[in-house]
Amino acid sequence: MFKQLIIFSKAQLSAFIGGLCDYGIMIFLTEIGGMRYVFSIAVACILGAVVNFSLNRTWSFYSQSKSYKFSSTQQLVRFAVVLASSILLKISGTYLLTSFAGIDYKISRIITDIIVSLGYNYVLQRFWVFIKTKNRK
C-alpha cells in the first residue's frame, strides 16, 4: 500500500511539473502570441506531455526496467492515445466552463486539468501505459 502511495505521489508530481510547462506555454501562446485558447491548449498539452512522459517513464513508474509489459515504443504509442483523448477532454472542459459558466479560461483550464489528471490520465497511465508484467515484480 505504501509503495502504491509513493507511485501515485511521484506520478502526480510529474503531472504537476508537466502541467506547469503546459500551462505556461498556453498562457504565452494566448496572451503574447494571440492564439485562441482552444488551439493554444492543444499545442501546450503536447509539449507538457513530453515532460510528463519522460518523468513518468524514468522516475514515477520505473518503466525502463525489464519488468514492464510493453517496450518504450509501445508505451509511447499508448501514451499518445491517452494524450489525444486528454487534449480533447481539456479543450472541451475548458471551453464549456469558459463559454457557459463565464469562468476565465485560465481558471477553467486549472479546474479541467485537475479533473482530467486525477480521474483519467493517472488511471490510464498507471494501468494501461506503464503496466508491469504479472510474473515480475
Structural write-up:
- The chain is elongated and about 45 Å long.
- The chain starts with a helix and ends in an 8-residue tail after the last helix.
- It has helices at 2-32, 37-60, 72-101, 105-129.
- 80% of the residues lie in helices and 0% in strands.
- It has one domain (2-129).
- By secondary structure, it is mostly helical.
- It is built from four helices and no strands.
- The mean pLDDT is 89.
Secondary structure tally: strands: 0
| SSE run | HHHH
Average pLDDT metric: 89
Proportion of helical residues: over 70%
Poorly predicted sequence stretches spanning 5 or more consecutive residues? none
Largest sheet, strands/sense/barrel: none
Give the end-to-end Cα distance, rounded to a whole number of Å. 15 Å
Number of domains: 1
Radius of gyration, whole Å: 16 Å
Give me a quick take on this structure:
With 137 residues, the protein is mainly α.
Topology, element by element:
Layout (H helix, E strand, L loop, with lengths): L1 H31 L4 H24 L11 H30 L3 H25 L8
Which labels suit this protein?
137 residues, mainly alpha, elongated
